[in-house]
Amino acid sequence: MSRPPERRRGEPTLTRALLGWLILPLVVALAVSAYSTYRNANQLAQTERDLVLEGITDDLKEYVSSTLESRQPLDPGALTISLLIGDARDRRYFAVYDGSGRLLAGDRRLRRLADDRIDAPRTVYDDLVLDGRTVRRAVLRDNEDMPGFEIQVAETTVRRERLALHLLRGVLVPQAIVILLSIPLIWFGISRGLHPLELLRRRISGRSAQDLDAIPVDHTPRELLPVVSALNDLLLRFKAVQQEQRRFIADAAHQIKTPLAVLTAEIDLALSDKGCTCAQPTYARLQAAVSRLTHLVGQLLALAHSESDADRAHAPFDLAEVARDVTGEFLPAAARKRIDLGFEGPEHAIPVRGNVVLVREAMKNLVDNALKFAPEGGTVTASVRSGPPVFAVADSGPGIPDAELPLIFQRFHRAADSNTTEGSGLGLAIVQEVARKHGAVVTAGRSALGGALFEFRFEDEAVSQP
Ligand SMILES: Nc1ncnc2c1ncn2[C@@H]1O[C@H](COP(=O)(O)OP(=O)(O)OP(=O)(O)O)[C@@H](O)[C@H]1O
Ligand SMILES: [Mg+2]
Questions:
Q1: Is 348 in a helix, a strand, or coil?
Q2: What parts of the sequence cross the membrane (predicted)?
Q3: From CA 289, how far away is CA 263, in angstroms rounded?
Q4: Which residues have CB atoms below 5 A from the ion given as ligand 2?
Q5: Which fold has domain 17-166?
Q6: 3-class DSSP state for residue 100?
Q7: Domain range annotation of the chain
Q8: Taking CA atoms, which of 8, 119, 165, 440 is between 20 and 30 Å from 374?
Q9: What pTM was computed for the model?
């Protein structure tokens, strides 16, 4: 299975884009909420502090009224006044005007209000700047006990601002925490939502290069269907081109077989002509070359057949019987090399489903290799066993070096030191193709005889249990 490509930093990802588009509205909502909370908090702090100012104004009015009633002069430095207007955080100012508009006590900068701004008996408020700082002023004009008297109390806005900030923080901090906590949750949600994409990736990358069948569209989300359909369309076209190529190779190999057969017959005839001995070595070399070419063409044809889609018909057969039969066919070849070719298998049948012609071709190639690479007088053992059905060939040859193992199934690959033996390098490619068609696997390793061990194992339940 191919791995997903390494992700580079800063590369756009769907997860990041979705996360961004989901978080952006949340942040905008937080900003709007912050602004309205700020306004509300200011309003609340203003109202709360205005009430305090109003209380002080009322108390000051009581004090002025009782002082004047007892016919005492109004002393701005009096303890009561300093207690009333004293505050640890804010600076407070006051002013007391009598009915004629004369300042009796307090700060002259707190000017008496024009009559049209008075809303007696209610306290009126306004903002002004004193000593370079904004102050909030409460003005109370008395119309009952002391007609025309005006009491003003003003304070800087430190407490108000603190209160507003406190209220703002109380609302905004929990909201920001909720948004921060929701990011991993959103991330998780997006990952879950994008899971079908990952499934599709696995479906595609889990395929072999030869599998050009359409990708199943079941369980594919509607948004991905156009992509999958386009991909299936491409696979279909690609498959058609590939089949056309295979047909061409099969046809070409088939066409070449006839002139080769004629050539072989002609060479045999020339070799049998004992009257002309001088050309015999040339004919012998020609015969060897034609035999190699015939073998190559035969292998090409077998490979084309094993890859062709036309041979998909599978039928039940007995693996043990076929293996015994194929091994028997190689007894004369084994005898020529004085190789002890044996067969081990159970008496009972090993039922499998498949294309018996292709499976025979695969077996022939494995036994042929073993006989080819085993030394003169060596041993080759073909065997079958059930559960799961396996056909194995072990030999006493040189074996396959570990470095060669990943390469031997490639087409036309022949190990460097196998050049002494004849071969086209297509045998194991045919075996692997046949295995793929049967849901089987071919493995190569070391045999107990000291050489190579090849196993052809049927793994697909449907194939191995007819
Ligand atoms: N039993 C074996 N012992 C040692 N090496 C082997 C054995 N079988 C295969 N190989 C190695 O794997 C290579 C590929 O084998 P493969 O059957 O594909 O090609 P070939 O036998 O050289 O040619 P062909 O089978 O087409 O005539 C061989 O050339 C050889 O190096
Ligand atoms: Mg071979």
A1: coil
A2: 20-38, 167-190
A3: 11
A4: 369, 427
A5: Beta-Lactamase (3.30.450)
A6: coil
A7: 17-166, 222-304, 312-464
A8: 440
A9: 0.59
